[in-house]
Design goal:
Order of helices and strands: HHHHHEHEEHEEHEHEHEEEEHEEH
Bound molecules: ligand MTE, molybdenum atom
CATH class: Alpha Beta
Domain Oxidoreductase molybdopterin-binding: 133-300
EC number: 1.8.-.-
Radius of gyration: 20 Å
Distance between the termini: 51 Å
Number of domains: 1
CATH superfamily: Oxidoreductase, molybdopterin-binding domain
Number of helices: 12
Low-confidence stretches: 1-54, 76-91
Oligomer: single chain
CATH topology: Sulfite Oxidase, Chain A, domain 2
Pfam families: Oxidored_molyb (PF00174)
Strand content: 15-25%
Number of strands: 13
Mean pLDDT: 81
GO molecular function, one term: oxidoreductase activity
Largest sheet: 8 strands, mixed
Keywords: Oxidoreductase
Shape: globular
Length: 355
């Protein structure tokens, strides 16, 4: 039982901070270490997942864990007294942005990581048990199309160059499950600015890794044959936003979750997070971002245009053709239904985009 034992890099921020800097905080170092000891001794976690396989915590860790790249371990800044958030004891250095609140309890890490959608691996939710062969490091992705400075980015450079922060976001899947999780990353707009989109760029397309192919290999981009990619779906997985949606401050690129690098099943090493839209918009394990003047074809919209729109904003009043969207449930339990909120609660940020 190792779920709560953290690797040295996960402790870096605490242990590299002089004792006196955090002595008054809720997590005194000794107490912190004592907690780790307790966890190591084995705090049981109930197997109460619904609609998905259960596994030991160790199994989940082994299957979905990503070794932290050296560049990421090194980049943790020294926190100041004011900025440091004691509750986020496993942060790898990104400062917690207090401007985003769930309005609901945070989903437990073990619940979020054992119930994921990642169709490249499987159509069921237990992808954590199928991602073992996927290697998300080293990793490159390109930004191409209508921009002045198209380029290929190495994920290790991204760790060094971007303004990382942690944001607590709600997530709502079109299937009616929802979760509240802390993502580590940066605004998508900050990344797009690096390539200087031209005035002609009206849409932004996103693409996940494809099966091994010449085009990506020649561009130096990673490929991978996910076990479910022989099915008749329109691989690779694609998604898209308008340029205004992409430049909105909520649109986020995540490289971490719960203060750790993204587990493979969450879309390691880099994914999109668009919290006011249904979850399928949040494209995982990105290898290509394309600026275009036409609305790009997208995976679910191509498969079922009458069921999955391009815009796909969370809206309790627009039912899916096969079920209501008026309510939702929080991982891991369907026992309580919550009211769905228009734009998933983010109307203050994005309603203006659709006025
Ligand atoms: N490449 C890829 N990205 C994807 C998916 C997928 O199957 N493949 N599923 C989407 C769906 S339907 C949802 S709800 C979210 C789920 O994110 P999570 O599994 O990390 O919670 O990822 C989205 N991104
Ligand atoms: Mo979803």
């Amino acid at each position: 039982m190792q779920y709560h034992i953290r690797k040295p890099w996960q402790l870096a921020q605490k242990l590299h901070t002089p004792e006196d800097v955090y002595v008054n905080r809720r997590w005194h170092r000794r107490e912190f270490l004592r907690t780790l000891g307790l966890s190591a001794a084995g705090i049981g976690m109930g197997a109460h997942l619904i609609g998905c396989d259960t596994a030991s915590d160790e199994e989940v860790l082994k299957s979905g864990k990503v070794e932290v790249p050296a560049a990421l371990a090194e980049r943790a800044p020294e926190p100041t007294e004011k900025e440091w958030e004691p509750a986020k004891d496993n942060s790898f250095g990104a400062l917690h942005n207090p401007n985003f609140e769930y309005g609901r309890p945070e989903t437990k890490e073990e619940d979020a990581s054992r119930y994921t959608n990642f169709y490249e691996f499987s159509g069921s939710k237990n992808n954590y048990s199928r991602v073992g062969d996927f290697e998300p490091h080293p990793w490159k992705f390109e930004i191409t199309g209508l921009c002045a400075k198209p380029r290929v980015f190495d994920i290790d450079d991204i760790y060094k160059m971007m303004p990382f922060e942690e944001r607590d976001y709600r997530h709502r899947c079109v299937e009616t499950w929802a979760m509240c999780v802390p993502w580590t990353g940066f605004a998508l707009s900050e990344l797009l600015k690096k390539v200087e989109p031209t005035a002609q760029a009206k849409f932004v397309g996103f693409q996940t890794f494809d099966v091994p192919n010449k085009k990506d290999e020649q561009a130096g981009l990673p490929t991978f044959a996910g076990p479910n990619m022989s099915s008749g779906y329109p691989w690779p997985y694609t998604e898209g936003l308008t340029i205004d949606e992409a430049m909105n401050e909520l649109a986020f690129i995540a490289t971490g979750i719960y203060g750790k690098p993204l587990a493979k099943q969450h879309g390691a090493p880099i994914r999109l997070v668009v919290p006011w839209k249904y979850g399928f918009k949040s494209c995982k394990s990105i290898v290509r971002i394309t600026l275009t003047d036409k609305q790009p074809a997208t995976f679910w919209n191509t498969l079922g245009p009458q069921e999955y729109g391009f815009t796909a904003n969370v809206n309790p009043e627009v039912p899916h053709p096969r079920w209501s969207q008026a309510t939702e449930w929080m991982l891991p339990s369907q026992a309580t239904r919550y009211d769905t909120v228009i734009y998933n609660g983010y109307g203050d940020y994005v309603a203006k985009l659709y006025a």
